Amino acid sequence: MALTRSALRLFSGRFAQAYQVRSYADASSMSLTFAAPAQVLYNNAAVKQVDVPSFSGSFGILPAHVPTLAVLKPGVVTVFENDGSTKKFFVSSGTVTINEDSTVQLLAEEAVPVDALDISSAKELLSQAQSQLASASTDIAKAEAQISIEVSEALVKACE
């Protein structure tokens, strides 16, 4: 029993030291790398915040964010730059990695600036995807059509 108490005192002392050393409260920006297969949108750029759509719900990333790995769902990624401007990009899917040192990597399958999107084309894609689902005869075709519908709905929403 005495050995257990000594071990607990030793552990709690080290935990308190580690807790005091790790502090992100003074961080005002983070390093963002944001890329898609054909382009690099940000390469270790200092930014204030990034909002991302994920399957566990949309969330904002600040410099002191807990390390995280998440899957991006179709939607809008908003980057808040240090100069106060914001840039919005539509992503179809991808991953986001938030590291302990306040670096963030966004790897998207596709990334397009929201202001480059066309709502009539997005609605046409949605209509085509819905037609594909209605005519799908196999489970694979139905799943592919459902994915197309999900991306197209998010695309239309991003345009509005």
From TrEMBL:
It is found in: Mitochondrion inner membrane. The keyword Membrane applies. Residues 119-146 form a coiled coil. InterPro entries: ATP_F1_dsu/esu_C_sf, ATP_synth_F1_dsu/esu, ATP_synth_F1_dsu/esu_N, ATPD_C_metazoa, ATPsynth_dsu/esu_N. Residues 117-158 form the F1F0-ATP synthase delta subunit C-terminal domain. Keywords: Acetylation, ATP synthesis, CF(1), Coiled coil, Hydrogen ion transport, Ion transport, Membrane, Mitochondrion, Mitochondrion inner membrane, Transit peptide, Transport. Residues 30-111 form the ATP synthase F1 complex delta/epsilon subunit N-terminal domain. GO terms for molecular function: proton-transporting ATP synthase activity, rotational mechanism. GO terms for cellular component: mitochondrial inner membrane; proton-transporting ATP synthase complex. Belongs to the ATPase epsilon chain family. NCBIfam families: ATP_synt_epsi. Subunit delta, of the mitochondrial membrane ATP synthase complex (F(1)F(0) ATP synthase or Complex V) that produces ATP from ADP in the presence of a proton gradient across the membrane which is generated by electron transport complexes of the respiratory chain. ATP synthase complex consist of a soluble F(1) head domain - the catalytic core - and a membrane F(1) domain - the membrane proton channel. These two domains are linked by a central stalk rotating inside the F(1) region and a stationary peripheral stalk. Component of the ATP synthase complex composed at least of ATP5F1A/subunit alpha, ATP5F1B/subunit beta, ATP5MC1/subunit c (homooctomer), MT-ATP6/subunit a, MT-ATP8/subunit 8, ATP5ME/subunit e, ATP5MF/subunit f, ATP5MG/subunit g, ATP5MK/subunit k, ATP5MJ/subunit j, ATP5F1C/subunit gamma, ATP5F1D/subunit delta, ATP5F1E/subunit epsilon, ATP5PF/subunit F6, ATP5PB/subunit b, ATP5PD/subunit d, ATP5PO/subunit OSCP. This is ATP synthase F(1) complex subunit delta, mitochondrial. The lineage of its organism: Eukaryota, Metazoa, Ecdysozoa, Arthropoda, Crustacea.
